[in-house]
Structures are given as C-alpha cells and as structure tokens.
Amino acid sequence: MTPRHFLDLNRLEQSQLHRLMARAHDMKARFQRDRLSIAHLARGQVLAMLFSKPSTRTRVSFDVAMRQLGGETIVLNANELQLGRGETIADTARVLSRYVDVIMLRTTAHADLLELAEHADVPVINGLTDLSHPCQVFADVMTFEEYLGPISGRKIAWIGDANNNVATSWLHAASMFGFILSIACPEAYRPSPELVQDTTARGGQIVIHEDPGEAIAGADCVLTDVWVSMGHDDGDRRMKMLRDYQVDAALMSRAAPHAIFMHCLPAQRGHEVTGEVIDGPQSVVFEEAENRMHAQRAILAWCLEAE
Ligand code: CP
Ligand code: NVA
C-alpha cells in the first residue's frame, strides 16, 4: 500500500485537499468541545520528527498534536543520526519505517524530502524545506476561513520575499483553493516563472507588482515573512533590496477595512513588519500559530488512516 504523504499542497487532489480542510475545521471544533473525543485516532502509533533546522512552532505543535491523538513522538536532530556521517536517506527511510508509523522532516533540500518519501513505507510529512512549507499554509488557509469565510475568489496580498518556502506554498494554495494572490516584491525576489506558469495553468490567479500599495489595495488578507530565511547567507543584500516592502500601518490601511494580517512567525519587528501592525488589532498571528496544532492533528490523522 502506498503511504499517504503530505509533501506539498499541490500534490494532493484538489477535492482531497478540500476534504482535508473541512476535516481540520471539524476536528478543531470537536476537540474544543471534548478533547478526549479524538484521543484514540493515533493510539499506539509513533511519530518521528527529524530536524536539520531550528523550529519552535513546528516541533511543539506536531508533538502536542500527536499526543492529543493518543500517539507518541520522537524528536531527532538529523545531524546526530548516522545520516550526518553519510548513511543514505533511502536506508534511513527504510529503517525508520520499521520503527515508527509516520515521519515528519524539516530540512534544507526538497530533494531529500522526496527521497525520504520515495523509500519510506510510512507517511512522510513536509515540516519545511528550502522550497516549501505546506503545513504552515494549510494552517493559514484554515485561519483565513475562520475569520472571513471561504478563501475561494478572495484577494490575498503577499509583500516581500516572494521566492521563499512559505510564498511558494501560497502559490500552490492559490491553484488549489482558487484565490487571487497579489504579490509585491523586487524583481530579484519574484517566484520563478515556471511556478507562476504552473500555478496559473492549474487555475490560480497570480498578479505581481513592484509597488506594495498596488498589491495590497482592497486585499482581504495581508501576508509577509522574514526577509532572510533560514539558510540564506545574503542578509545584507536582502535587507537593502526589501526595505521598501515593510508592512506598516500606512500600507495596511490600503487593504480592505476587514483585512487580517498573517505571518508564519518567527518575525523581525521593524524589518518586514512594524510592531504596530503585528501587535495591532488586525493581526491574527497567534491564532495562526495555534492553528498549526489543529491543522496538523487533521493531517496526521489523515496520513495514518488506511486508504
Ligand atoms: N512557522 C514555523 O514553521 O515556525 P518554526 O520555525 O518555529 O517551526
Ligand atoms: N521563510 C522562513 C519560514 C520560517 C518558518 C524560513 O525558512 O526561515
């Protein structure tokens, strides 16, 4: 049986992703009514989490989510495994599959995630790579829908580095959920033309501006992320190139009056966003962080159930 991996939003069937989202909303409501009502869904099962980059939210929210489902967790620093001494990813996948029921990986190269999934007999979940961060954006879409209803047809503005992992997953989401992604970024930090083309071909609407004011006009939701993601070694250049892309109160006022502000966190106040915005009334960043746990509980349950 092929395991149910969660590698990227656009690797699922659209209807499957929509069902998973509906389930995440339902499961959160059920959990909030009676947290023990879902405490059997992963009973006796073990999640291994492999990290080769730092994490606060992903690590803790997955750990807690698995325990809430009645399962157990093992957290591993990838560099402390024999992987760090050259054991192959394929052998690591085969061995871990004999011990655990599901694997979450946070790493640099997306190819390593795909290789792990190819050789694992258990589901593999993408906990962030240099290319994408699907769990984050799944939780973000869930958060949007809680505040403003269905995301389909709405206008979502992304301001700043539009070529990073979170932005890429937002492009994937645009094609799967059918909203308008209005991007403002310098030319050097645009999403790749191939990704834009693929997103458009799958029905996503992407509009790219250089001027943040144009991108944000009338938006239902404003998003940004750090200018220097983990692993980027050109911080000074990025700070200079992106300094006109800060989300401040003046820019935020050009979005729709009901607009929410989201950021995956961790944030750099005074760089990509001002404290006034991220700590202000339109910001839902901590609800978004909480939803990582609710979303991933649904993702884990989906991965673990048989086809
Ligand atoms: N947003 C997010 O993935 O946070 P961590 O890096 O803390 O896991
Ligand atoms: N783009 C950020 C996301 C962190 C959750 C990074 O990769 O550092």
From TrEMBL:
Pfam families, alphabetized: OTCace (PF00185), OTCace_N (PF02729)
Q: Which SUPFAM superfamilies match?
A: Aspartate/ornithine carbamoyltransferase
The reactions it catalyses are:
carbamoyl phosphate + L-ornithine = L-citrulline + phosphate + H(+)
Pathway, per record: Amino-acid biosynthesis; L-arginine biosynthesis; L-arginine from L-ornithine and carbamoyl phosphate: step 1/3
- Enzyme Commission code(s) on record: 2.1.3.3
Which residues belong to any copy of the Aspartate/ornithine carbamoyltransferase Asp/Orn-binding domain? Answer: 153-303
Kindly state which keywords UniProt assigns to this record, in alphabetical order: Cytoplasm, Transferase
The leader peptide range reads none
For the Aspartate/ornithine carbamoyltransferase carbamoyl-P binding domain, which residue ranges apply?
4-146
Q: Where, by residue number, does carbamoyl phosphate bind?
A: 55-58, 82, 106, 133-136, 264-265, 292
- One Gene Ontology MF term: ornithine carbamoyltransferase activity
Q: What is its main location?
A: cytoplasm
Is DNA-binding found in the keyword set? Answer: no
Tell me its family.
Belongs to the aspartate/ornithine carbamoyltransferase superfamily. OTCase family.
Protein name per Swiss-Prot or TrEMBL:
Ornithine carbamoyltransferase
